[in-house]
Design brief:
The chain has 398 residues and is an alpha+beta fold. It has eleven helices and 16 strands.
Length: 398
């Protein structure tokens, strides 16, 4: 009997919870995950955003705090570039930084006291994910202290308004206090991709870095940008892989085609190679289902303007220009038109109001509202007729 009662309670609780989910106001597919028709990717969490606007388009558990492995290094690059680091400055690799060159961590084989430029350290950290390079860079930019630099990384996360990101080390080595989320990582990548130096580095299939006495050839671990890798993707422009026992196989990927650019983040994907297929699927979904299109077109009618002293006479207010923005599944578009009272007279095309367009609550543009057809000021007879008509209605209503 006890089991039967507990089962009944559980069923009732489940039904009540389901009703609450159905009735819960203001929660869209864009906020909780993916819109209908979005791909189902084999990853613990993922996110797809529009690189231009930053709009979140699709994903799964995009705000879950998880380990992110070497995708952490994107933030190192952002801090370095934001601070205006001298990319040509030579850095002396410390013994501590060089100790990360070995079989445990991904590395480029730096030796103690190697002299390497800041740009080459960034390249070594981002292309083959050199942990030795990232520690050398963090020490240099932290005035000799890795911890000092990690503090800058956390400050930058706060500045960007990232709620689910915290750093404990610059390399993404597994640590309970080193985590982010798919959505936060997409935001970090979007901001960092604004720097041409970063875009150049992460798009390279291979590169060469130099010390004072040798050259080191490196190959990009992001197979999306490596020709003939079997996973190369024509529109791909970057960005960074990450793999660890705690984080699994991770990838931050970007792609551009025409006027569209997207960033996809895969965390704890099914495997090292599967993450590239999953990222390509997400990016293709972006290119296939979303597009920049006029959300307001020139000449669209938004209001009827009552003419002064002329009952039942109006003139249309129309958009003066197109307002173009990203549109696609699950994106909520709103158009808000406002206008002033009609002036005594107006010429065709005279601005009287504005229509503002927003997507997912973000303003994406506006257009003046203009008079579709000009009109003259009311004559004395029209004014007398207007006043007389008003007086008559007032008397009849008494």
């Amino acid at each position: 009997m006890r089991a039967r009662i507990d089962l009944g309670k559980s069923a009732a609780t489940l039904i009540a919870f389901s009703v609450l989910l159905i009735l819960a106001p203001g929660v869209s597919a864009q906020e909780t995950g993916a819109p209908p028709g979005a791909p189902k990717l084999d990853a613990s969490s993922w996110a797809l955003i529009d690189a231009d606007s930053g709009l979140y388009l699709a994903g799964k558990d995009p705000d879950e705090q998880v380990p992110i492995a070497s995708t952490t290094k994107i933030m190192v690059a952002l801090v370095a570039l934001d601070e205006g680091a001298n990319l040509d400055e030579k850095v002396t690799v410390s013994e501590d930084a060089a100790s990360y060159a070995g079989s445990v961590y991904s590395n480029v084989g730096l030796y103690p006291y190697d002299q390497v430029s800041v740009k080459d350290l960034l390249t070594a950290a981002l292309v083959p994910s050199g942990t030795d390079a990232i520690y050398a860079l963090a020490e240099h930019l932290g005035d000799g202290s890795v911890d000092e630099f990690v503090g800058k990384m956390n400050d930058k996360a706060k500045e960007l308004g990232l709620k689910n990101t915290h750093y404990e080390n610059p390399a993404g080595i597994d640590d309970p206090e080193n985590y982010s989320s798919a959505r936060d990582l997409a935001k970090i990548a979007r901001v960092t991709m604004k720097y041409p130096e970063f875009r150049e580095i992460v798009a390279q299939p291979e590169a060469t870095i130099s010390t004072q006495d040798r050259e080191i050839q490196i190959v990009n671990t992001n197979l999306l940008v490596v020709p003939n890798s079997g996973y190369d993707y024509g529109p791909a422009t970057g960005i960074k892989t990450g793999t660890s026992l705690g984080a699994g196989a991770c990838l931050v990927a970007s792609a551009t085609s025409g006027d569209e650019s997207y960033i996809a983040v895969l965390l704890d994907a099914a495997g090292d190679l599967q993450r590239f297929d999953a990222a390509r699927t997400a990016l293709e979904y972006g290119f296939g289902k979303f597009d920049y299109e006029p959300l307001v077109e020139q000449g669209d009618d938004f209001a009827d303007l009552d003419l002064p002293y002329r009952r039942d006479e109006t003139v249309k207010l129309v958009a003066a220009k197109d307002v173009t923005a990203l549109a696609g599944p699950g994106l909520e578009v709103a158009r808000q038109a406002t206008h002033k009272e009609a002036p005594p007279s107006a010429k065709k095309g005279q601005k009287i109001g504005t229509v503002e367009v927003s997507v997912e609550g973000r303003e994406v543009g506006s257009s003046p509202l203009v008079v579709q057809k000009g009109y003259q000021a009311a004559s004395l007879w029209q004014k007398i007729t207007y006043w007389a008509g008003g007086l008559k209605r007032w008397v009849l209503q008494r």
